[in-house]
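Document type: protein sequence-to-structure record

Subject area: structural biology

Format: plain text, a pair of labelled lines:
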Amino acid sequence: MSSRKPTPPQPFTLEGTVDRTWCTRALVDTLHTWAATPGIVMALVIRGTTHSVTFDHTKGALQGLPVLFYADGSIDAVDFYVPTIRLIEV
């Protein structure tokens, strides 16, 4: 019998910045679709190590902030966003 406690799931936050990490609105929409898919498990590879992860809804899962705001409020699939993706190991 082992007295070792199980390790809690490891969180991963992939956070963009305004000056170097952008993605398109179309990609943000795809990520939102994935985040809304119950039970989705994905492979995240970091430095050659693969982790099985899912969106961490307790921490907000996904955020995409526009790089530019247009006065007319228009949004296009090619507009750029700064992403923050919160995942948790499963």
